[in-house]
Amino acid sequence: MTAVSILLMTACSSAGSAGAGATGGQSASSQSGTQTVDSQSAGHQSGAQTVGGQSADSRQSVSDTSDSMSTQRSSSYKVGDVVPEYVFTYAENQTSDYPTTQAARYFAKLVNQETEGRIEIRVYPRAELGDEKSSIEQLCFGGIDFARVSLGSTSEYSEESVVLQMPYLYKNADHMWRVLDGEIGARIKESFEGSGIVALAWFDAGVRNFYTIDGPINRLEDVKGLKIRVQQSELAEDMVTALGAEPVPIVYEDVEEALQTHAVDGAENNWSSYEAMGHNTYAGYYCLDEHMRVPELMLMSEVTWNKMSTIDQNIILQCAIEAGDYERELWKKREDSSRDKCLQAGTVEIVLSDEEKQRFREAVDDLYTKYCSEHMDLVKEITEAGQQ
Fold first, then answer.
1. Most buried of 135, 145, 236, 387 (most Cβ within 10 A)?
2. Is residue 23 part of a domain?
3. What pLDDT digit, counting tens, does each position of 192-201 carry?
4. What is the DSSP string of 165-198?
């Protein structure tokens, strides 16, 4: 698999420069009471190569060697054979059995094996190291080394990334992955250059749909006047308003109660969350309008990245891409399982026609002007990719 070349500029702030003297694993690990490593170990000597000063040829070597990585994996290494040169932290806000967390542990295992134990990555689920916003901030100054976040949390670090979050942008999942796995996805990852974070790999987060309590959504008119729970996001609120409903921002953990007490008429989320949180018990009509496919990213601190040799950068990048593929497989299985459970429990699934979906898409046209006015060429590229 060909790795994406990542060009880096400078750390995100003076705090980033201050953090560069110690591993990201140190500051985050010390908060969690876990083992830390001495910054004067072999892995932190000033002779380690960094990508910031690479020539075009040396950057190319990162990509050129990636294709052979899968055939060079070592399965004989056992944890404990050597003392790691680096102990890194990975922030994850989902539970231990969630696809993204499982993929994080898979990534950590791959990196540990490929570096023969020189690099150890410790995964902290359930937001032990902070929520997504906090995790990204800590990545910027090296307080955390890796994190998995929703693209919805990254807009201030990459203006272009907001385009990928727009409602009714993709025809289907194949369209989205054609975009993310291609040249457009590579450009979006590169757009994080100089922000303090390095975008490594795309993760799946499914597709968000509307679900309601008292009746189905069969057409656009059925949305009008409904009180719909949304994420605490200006874009999500604007989308629901454009469709004619009233947005009600409520934190994820309180949605079940809001549905149970009829504080809202419905909500929106993917199959997995709908089933896992028991929302299907109260809102039994699930409409496949597919309004948002917001992918997720595995990120790395630029401070940490710049400590790595070219070889280790390549290992981390390739292992991240492999972990992303693994997460997609896990997500598809979980999504299918959740859908089956809900349908068996009595959920009514509503499939909109292409014509009706187009009406929903046209209702939110003004949002593209508001949020993507400077990137309409990119919107056009993505739209055309769906016609291939």
1. 145
2. yes
3. 999 999 999 9
4. G-TT--SSHHHHHHHHTSHHHHHHHHTTTTTTEE
